[in-house]
Amino acid sequence: MPNDNSIPTTESISVTNIDKSELTCAKCNAACCQLEVMLITETGVPEQYIDRDQWGGETMKKLDDGWCICVDRETKLCTIYENRPWVCRIFEMGSYECSDEFIPAN
Prior knowledge:
Strand order of the largest sheet: 1-2
Structural class: little secondary structure
Number of helices: 2
Strand content: 5-15%
Number of strands: 2
Distance between the termini: 55 Å
Largest sheet: 2 strands, antiparallel
Helix content: 10-25%
Oligomer: single chain
């Protein structure tokens, strides 16, 4: 008699592997610039680019399309690079977070 508590299995699981040599900022559509960016240290982000979340924490403003307000839409470069948030400074190209968000450029 089958055990009703058995764990279901799948016949196949789709896996996408990205060659890390393909992961470069120039080959991506700045997917990381669509993530939520918490401001946890003072880096000099100009006040007009800062929002407050529902708990009172500071975050980078996003535009209606979900992109960080500081991303130049044509070049996909940060317009406040020298004063970018700490989280943006430590975001590592090719990391799990990067490869998980990677959007190939056209």
